[in-house]
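in:
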């Protein structure tokens, strides 16, 4: 892909010298770079069960901590295992095919492993304990409305970049010291 980008840059330089063609090539470039971005993003995260947050958090009023147990006390909240689902899905729940699949997995004693969606690089220090347990921030601040989704999102609803952390730290008078977040 690097080679292709270099080629595009060269081509733009050539065309800039000949203004007439520029519009056409610029339009073509947009299409090509769009395709490159789409390929680079990949298919996203796929989950083993089409979990429905809205049904469980709104209709059934379940607390986040039932499934994300360490959200107040740990760095990582954790994702639920089949034992948590089995509390209710050992018996048939509702009428959907997907709910029936959960009950089948429980009956077969199969493990169920959900994939992580939000992810920071390893050089960043972040804990939920500090932000949720002590700072009492709402999940929505950083995760958007994931609690209202009816199927697992393939990509994070919020892009958590350094600027995102720094913006809130600036607004709330928290640290912007490099060492606080990079240990
Ligand atoms: C406290 C009980 C409870 C727990 C725990 C629970 N569920 Fe459910 N779940 C239900 C009930 C009740 C329904 C049926 C609601 C309805 O159809 O009205 C349901 C429905 C579903 C459905 C169908 C959703 C849809 O779109 O209709 C899926 C899939 C599902 N659950 C997966 C899971 C998974 C996976 C877990 C574990 C991570 C889990 N549930 C944990 C009670 C629970
Ligand atoms: C009954 C279990 C259950 C409850 C209750 C629940 N979740 Fe989840 N959560 C899941 C499952 C299963 C996944 C992975 C599949 C998905 O993304 O839908 C998940 C994924 C997530 C993720 C993405 C985690 C990652 O891998 O980066 C966030 C954020 C999240 N939940 C927030 C919440 C919030 C906020 C609440 C409470 C308002 C909540 N959840 C309540 C089961 C639950
Ligand atoms: C200040 C921002 C922030 C808030 C507030 C926040 N989270 Fe997170 N959450 C993150 C970040 C950043 C990650 C990814 C961390 C990593 O890479 O391990 C994450 C990851 C997760 C995960 C993935 C599972 C895991 O063990 O890593 C879950 C589930 C989750 N958060 C749930 C919640 C819930 C539920 C709440 C509210 C009670 C909440 N979060 C509040 C920033 C936040
Ligand atoms: C929505 C606001 C918000 C966002 C977004 C946010 N933080 Fe924070 N952060 C806080 C608050 C508030 C505290 C102080 C909590 C307390 O102790 O009461 C804090 C504290 C911290 C601390 C402890 C600082 C110290 O003095 O030791 C670290 C480390 C930290 N945040 C890292 C991060 C990282 C990394 C991100 C991005 C992934 C992030 N924060 C995103 C609000 C935020
Ligand atoms: C409040 C938390 C926070 C503070 C303070 C912070 N960073 Fe970061 N930084 C992050 C997060 C989160 C990432 C990873 C996400 C990203 O790449 O944007 C990151 C990524 C980086 C990267 C890697 C960028 C890349 O493209 O891979 C560098 C380099 C960096 N930070 C340097 C610094 C320096 C230098 C400072 C002090 C001036 C600083 N950071 C302060 C949270 C923070």
């Amino acid at each position: 892909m690097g080679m292709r980008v270099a080629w595009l840059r060269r081509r733009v330089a050539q065309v800039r010298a000949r203004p007439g063609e520029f519009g056409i090539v610029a339009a073509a470039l947009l299409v090509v770079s769009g395709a490159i971005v789409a390929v680079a993003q990949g298919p996203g995260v796929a989950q083993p069960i089409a979990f429905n947050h809205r049904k469980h958090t709104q209709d059934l009023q379940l607390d986040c901590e039932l499934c994300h147990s360490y959200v107040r006390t740990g760095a990582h909240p954790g994702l639920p295992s089949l034992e948590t689902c089995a509390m209710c899905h050992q018996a048939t729940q509702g009428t959907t095919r997907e709910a029936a699949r959960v009950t089948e997995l429980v009956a077969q004693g199969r493990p169920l492993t959900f994939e992580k969606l939000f992810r920071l690089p390893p050089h960043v220090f972040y804990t939920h304990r500090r932000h949720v347990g002590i700072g009492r921030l709402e999940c929505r601040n950083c995760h958007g409305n994931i609690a209202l989704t009816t199927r697992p999102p393939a990509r994070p609803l919020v892009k958590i970049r350094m600027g995102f952390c720094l913006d809130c730290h600036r607004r709330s008078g928290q640290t912007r010291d490099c060492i606080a977040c990079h240990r």
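note: The pocket of heme C (ligand 2) is lined by residues 47, 51, 53, 56-57, 62, 64, 66-68, 79-80, 114, 116-118, 139, 143, 146-147, 152 (CB under 6 Å).
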